[in-house]
Design a protein that fits this description.
- By secondary structure, this protein is α/β, with parallel strands linked by helices.
- 42% of the residues lie in helices and 15% in strands.
- It is built from eight helices and ten strands.
- It has an eight-stranded parallel β-barrel with strand order 1-2-3-4-5-6-7-10, surrounded by four helices.
- α3 (79-99) links the parallel β3 (64-69) and β4 (103-106).
- The radius of gyration is 18 Å and the shape is globular.
- 45% of the residues are buried.
Length: 283
Amino acid sequence: MRVGIFAKTFARSSLGETLDAVRAHRIGCVQFNMSCAGLPTMPEEIPAELAERIRVELDERNLTMAAVSGTFNMIHPDRGKRREGLRRLGVLADACGRLGTSVITLCTGTRDPEDMWRYHPENDSPGAWRDLLVSMEQAVRVAEEHEVTLAFEPEVNNVVDSAEKSRRLVDEIRSSRLKVVMDAANIFRESELPRADEILDKAFELLGEDIVIAHAKDVKSTGEVVAAGRGELDYDRYLENLRGVGFEGPVILHGLGESEVERSVAFLRAKLVKAACSEHRGR
């Protein structure tokens, strides 16, 4: 496993400066966002020369793009907005080869019309699930056409708010192009924090074979989400679970301010070293 970070953690006036800030922390991979190149996260179009320049800028700094963010509200109450999100997903998928990545991250969405990460009571309705299946089936067709992988993240405020619903979605879509982003801070509600270890272990039991990216942030007993190393998440258990399912991919820091990066990078690196040593001793 290796440390990565959301590129947009660093607010700079140019792509080169953003990537220089990543390298200054000795980080080797990023989850990219097209906003780092002056476009919306989900652009109407991506000029080929821009995608190629992003790839060159990454290569010059020995950086890899673990994934590119392709988040839109997959169950938005406005059908037209869902259609537009899917069209723009196609634009992003078409650019992935030039960008140098094969993974696009998704948000399963919410019935809230303004914020795709805000809870809405209708998220639990049969209609919301039907709309998700329709959107995801179309998204998977885009992924198959462009030979990319889609990775959605279970989050408690979204329609897919648990490991159980994640398993159900993967099983119902039945495509090798659909995988999971695991973020241990996102899979339990405040009331469930006393059972965090149990919920975490169950999530890996259900989803372990489908995880392609791991996210790294933290959570306090109050339910507040904070930078990795500043909360009460059992990171040893989290990383042990990742190793237990054979995960060897990127662990991407996010949900932190730039002033917190140095501390969180050091924390995560120390935990990864500890996990590797524990695995070696267990052989």
